């Protein structure tokens, strides 16, 4: 086939036209690409630069060290100790099952946790560590470290975990920490991002919870560069957090541990308070529990045992428990009457064993009556009828006002959970809450701390301090924060007549030191430590006329729940009061037999600052007391939390 | 057709041919490939392994092939067109059969030292065949419907085969490239207008039918279209690549983040960063200036080629050069539109820059043909 050598002019012109058209279109399209590039790279550059940085940079929080808690002498009672855990990185381990099998020969592994870890590994990226075992002991940790070459991908990691060296002794005051739960998060508005760190520990109850803001500290952070699957490539910068503040409590560890041991397994509460400053030296509730169990995760059976016990070990009875104060309230009635001038200390009242008020018979605890009673005798022997009569003259308004001044019915703001406000009944209260009119009989009941009156051991200790000093003592639990002690002015005077106070104090002295006093059996014979106290035995049930006739009122014959509460309050030394003590033994029977001996032991211990000399006790008791001292000293931990004869 | 029949006044012979090569074009190609080596070095984290070095070797091989092809007279390649076209179609069928027998969706034939993708080769041989067809066809018949059928068949057969692989990107390139050659051969513009109008109509119909009883596509296909139109609607799913690609591009700014400082590519946020998305790495690290420079190089290549085509009085040579230029243009136009979020992700490499053996070799052979046409042009 023959064709012209050169294309015809027309064909070539057409080709040229078309080629230029298409070439122009191509150049035009490229210009559009350029414009698009300009739009992305110049107009929107800042926005995309930001997105790229967001892609690249990941901010990781660095949890701060939690503040530690010390007693008044600097003995640590809540500390951070290294906690060891074992993690595995899938991509380094290779054969995960084989490695875990080898590890199980060195460390006790929980099969349930291992199953959970394996499923977590299957889900997460291969370079992320997965925890195999938590709270591993130092010995096990060392074994793993020594065998590290045979365990690729296994890393022992150290974190900080809370430990309470005195176990049960401070459980109710200090409380405990635990992992953050969804419930915790739901309660907090705008929660600190720290709380979302796995394994972060949050104060759950007690000082740990109430002082959480101080103890927690501020999170640090580090910025890391991550790639598209989240692997950390390098650390860009790091800002260390601010550790939480250390707290010093007013409590005295040696005393607190002693009181806990002394209370033993009774369902009881005891408070020792510095009656000049309000410093709480010991604040106990028994039985107690080991808060360390909650830190590592308490087992269901242990937890159920704690919640189901009728002795309520989880309750801080010293501040949460409220009891009818019984005869310990009589100082309030007596002081109110003296201040109001409705009677003088020398006036006598005839106690025939009962008093008829508006057709109702109110009994004295002593069926046959006390005879002629002065204020001193009535307090010393705890005559009920005397106070019935005084209170009828006094009226509830003035009685209630005095109770208020002495600290009853008010909620003291201590950093503890569930502090009770008790109940200081008044005319107004009964009308608004009960919707009924106040009756004379109510006043009669209130005069001896029964009826509506409810007080917590803390309130009783405050009341006793105020009686001992005449000042508006306020309880205090935090001594200093990070070594800084807040300035405190001495408590203001209550404005009570000193003579009247002296009458009350003398009567309280006689309770403990007069042969006829209700607590004479629990006296201190060392003159330097003489105490002034008051017993209380409060009924938790009404005694029916039939019961009274049958005479079956012996506590020992009743079931535990229906027995009387035993109370005792005191201050000491009498001449120069330093401490106030309140002891409540739930359903313990009589105040003089169940509560007073405990209060005496605690008082002596607190005043002496160690095991008190036997000479402070009446001769008759010394053998028994010595045996008790030996028994208790063997179980009281030393300042490191070690109990004698028990390995650290 | 013999050498003598193809009457030429003076055509250089022997080593003298080297002097008549289009050297500026060769330098431009080397410059573009150089950009490619640099970027491959960068995305590998500052290492010639695993991409830059093999790419360099392949470029060397490709360049030798280009010179070889350029030395052979263009009329030889003209005569070989049909054979080449037929052979490539057979290879396409071969991979199709092999793929269905074993291996799954295999697109290549293993030559030992490299994997040859017949679909890449097809881009050249189709242009060769079309150029040869219109060279043979008397110009007055160009627009007659009956004479339109053979070139349409030439285009549709390999397109259908490639689409079956499935390789949407290459099919589009074949279809558009073939169409462009037909356009330049002088087919009446009304046909193209009709095809474009039909295409627009079809797209409109597809969108209009959504949610009606006569819906033309499956729901998931519509979702893919949605993701393309608005990648932010599914930033971690199908829109991830586009979103990350735009972030990389945009974060480059005017002058970029610096060589090997691109966080998006270095930290693997970019998909396929050494192949289809390599342009984003360039734009991230060298910014608007870098991106425009590459675009400029491509533009100059296009202009040089069009000029070379127009200066060539041989119809086959002109059509061949223009066809190859059009294919080259389609390569980077589709790729760049894709990474800039202007086109769906279809898997077209950036010519001479993306890592990949077949595309690089085929392109260099194609430019060898351009050189051959240039050297052996009638004078």
Morphology of chain A? elongated
The coarse overall form of chain B would be globular
| Strand order in the sheet with the most strands of chain B | 1-2
Fraction in helix of chain B: 55-70%
Q: Provide the domain count of chain A.
A: 2
- In the CATH hierarchy, the architecture of the largest domain in chain A is 3-Layer(aba) Sandwich
Q: How many angstroms separate the termini of chain B? A: 19 Å
Largest interface: A-B, 45 and 55 residues
What is the CATH C-level name of the largest domain in chain A? Answer: Alpha Beta
Structural class of chain B: mainly alpha
User: Kindly state the mean pLDDT of chain B as a whole number?
Assistant: 86
Oligomer: heterodimer
Give structural notes.
The complex is a heterodimer of chains A (648) and B (379). In chain A, strand 14 (354-357) and strand 15 (360-363) form a beta hairpin. In chain A, strands 2, 3, 4, 5, 10 and 17 form a six-stranded mixed sheet that branches. A five-stranded antiparallel sheet of chain A has the order 12-11-20-19-18, with helices on both faces. Chain A has a three-stranded antiparallel sheet with strand order 1-8-9. With 648 residues, chain A is α+β, with helices and mostly antiparallel strands. The termini of chain A are far apart. Chain A has two domains: 60-249, Alpha-Beta Complex (Penicillin-binding protein 2a (Domain 2)); 253-301 and 316-477 and 497-635, DD-peptidase/beta-lactamase superfamily (Beta-lactamase, 3-Layer(aba) Sandwich). With 379 residues, chain B is mainly alpha-helical. Chain B has one domain (14-186, 218-375). The relative contact order of chain B is 0.16. The model of chain B has no long low-confidence stretch (mean pLDDT 86). The interface between A and B is large, with 45 and 55 residues.
Can you describe this structure in just a few lines?
The complex is a heterodimer of chains A (648) and B (379). With 648 residues, chain A is α+β, with helices and mostly antiparallel strands.
